[in-house]
Amino acid sequence: MAAALLVLVGGSIALAGSALDPGPDGLTAPTTTTPPLAAPTLLPPAASVTRADTIDLGVVSPAGLRDDRAYRVRIFVNGDLERELRLPDESPFEVPDLPLSEGDNAFRAALVGSGGQSELSAPVSVIRDTTAPVIRVLSPRRSELVYAANEILRGRTEPGATLSVTDGKHSDEISASVADDGRFEATLSLEVGTNRLVLRSVDRAGNQASARITIERGESQARVALTISASELTAAELPFDLEMVATVVDELGTPAHYAQVTFSLSPPNAATMTYVTSSAGGLATWPSVEVAGGGEAVGAWLVTVLAVLPSGTELREDESFSVR
Prior knowledge:
Helix content: under 10%
CATH class of the largest domain: Mainly Beta
CATH topology of the largest domain: Immunoglobulin-like
Low-confidence stretches: 1-31
Mean pLDDT: 90
Oligomer: single chain
Strand content: over 45%
Shape: elongated
Number of strands: 30
Number of domains: 3
CATH architecture of the largest domain: Sandwich
CATH superfamily of the largest domain: Macroglobulin (MG2) domain
Radius of gyration: 42 Å
Largest sheet: 6 strands, mixed
């Protein structure tokens, strides 16, 4: 070790042999500097959402560390020191069994050496979720009697979850689609009477929930009947004002109000004509449709009516007449 020597020069004291030497401007500066420590890198886990109460995290040591120095690693979670350990020789290495709290857990790491603690690493987030997802059926509504053979099951579950629908009678799985926000749909084929379904939802953490629902399908009496004012015409009777009347009955067998009714008239040699109206008291009419004369009128004319009930049920009926 070099010793400092005090020398009296001209009535003043000079410091000789010191590790700190004055520079040309008379200021004393250290001859060596210690670079700041770099932070370790945390590796993202295979699953960022889990229902487990602990997790193992991978850590990568920073490059350029000195072999003759000892280092330690600190692991912080949500700002609190959770674990401190000696820096292993190998890299990357694993820090096992770090505890998880319900909700978001932000992990960061720091390196500790003779120069103190490094900056914190970039965070790695792990969410612990132990809550089962909710299954909510929106339609058909509870205790609602349906009549269609095919119904759309609509509802909502946890965003990111999967959903399965199983026919309780035949144990057949029914395809269901789930949107990113948790809304789901499934097309059901219903038998007349009681239809039992089992719904199962699994969220990203592996939590599961199930729900059993019952849908009652009634025997529908819905129907539409089409009447036209002529069944056969001769060319000599043309032009002729044709009238079409649709009688619409709903699922309960009562006259349907506000059903959307579309009439279509297809001549043998011309484009199809359509007329849209709605039913009142179970009746819808397309009055006074002219069947014009000429050679193009000769042949079979097709008349079609399509009625859509307020429930969405579609009813169709066809009739025809001829011109000779």
